Amino acid sequence: MRQTEWIAIASAGNDFKNFAGFTEREQDGLHRAGEILREGGLVAFPTETVYGLGGDALNPDSSRRIYAAKGRPSDNPLIVHIADRGDLSCIASGIPEEAEKLAEAFWPGPLTMILHKSDAVPPETTGGLDTVAVRMPSHPVALAVIREGGGFVAAPSANTSGKPSPTLASHVAEDMGGRIDMIIDGGALGIGLESTIVDLTVSPPRILRPGYITREMLEQVLGHVEVDVTILQSQAECGQAPKAPGMKYRHYAPAGELTVVCGEPETVVEYINCRADEDQRAGHRVGVIGTEEMLGRYRADLIKSVGSRADKKAIAAGLYAILREFDREGATKIYSEAFSGDGLGQAIMNRLLKAAGHRVIDLRALQEGGENDSNRK
Fold first, then answer.
1. What's the domain range around 157?
2. Cβ(120)–Cβ(91) under 8 Å?
3. Is the whole-model pTM more than 0.90?
């Protein structure tokens, strides 16, 4: 087990190229992070979405180390992070006009574009595909790390594959401590869900992962944008294989069995309380993810507020931390309210469904005589 270096950066530098706004100690830490990346090592760093596990995107050995550290399937492509829009042409080919429009509108920011790759990007980074996923984050520390590391940093979330993504440096340490070279602690992150992924190799463009940049926002720039049906449905439900290899794997999952319950608020509370009582009698430690509006009505060992339904941004920012709290507190059965499938609610619901392995109870379907789909996969 290696010694993982740890540095904390509290400053929010504004001049990304010249490090204005960072203290001398912080600048030294960023230079050290870049040195590690250029030598083929791994550095975890904050972005505006979640903490990323960075390696040199153009170094096949670095990508292999990322897969090994995470325990990530090697056919699940890594996102290449850049710090200058002009660098896009170095790693992508045949860049369409739509990409330029989206970059102008949303970069730097939480948007990933899938494009045809250039020969500079090794297959180890793209999971063997001839496409590359690219984004330019807005977090000042992320931009500084990318520039110091050579300009092209592959960075999936800095967690063990399949577990909830990290939104605090302490989450990274839980999973990656002793397995990577450095962790940069940038504090709590603002968005808390991974970037939106839009595929620009198809027409019309298609959202493969929802996020803070919503379909409505994309359509204001591009016109019609499709949404992959597997975002809110399992392959068994829709009969369609996921477009991207990474979409077929379970993600964000707590150790306990998570079930998402859909329906009217009254019936959701009644159902969850009934199941919680049964589970507790069977010896389970039961957790509930509820909204502020309904929180006082649940019965369970662990009841956690994910925020108010009126503030989806706060719900998104806190979801993964709650899932990790349940792990630390030993929850073996977890129930969660569902969220609307539009706007940011679609991204929240997508993450919950993935975390639950599409284990869903739709009380409206049950009341109408439909089948109990709690075991759908």
1. 5-209
2. yes
3. yes
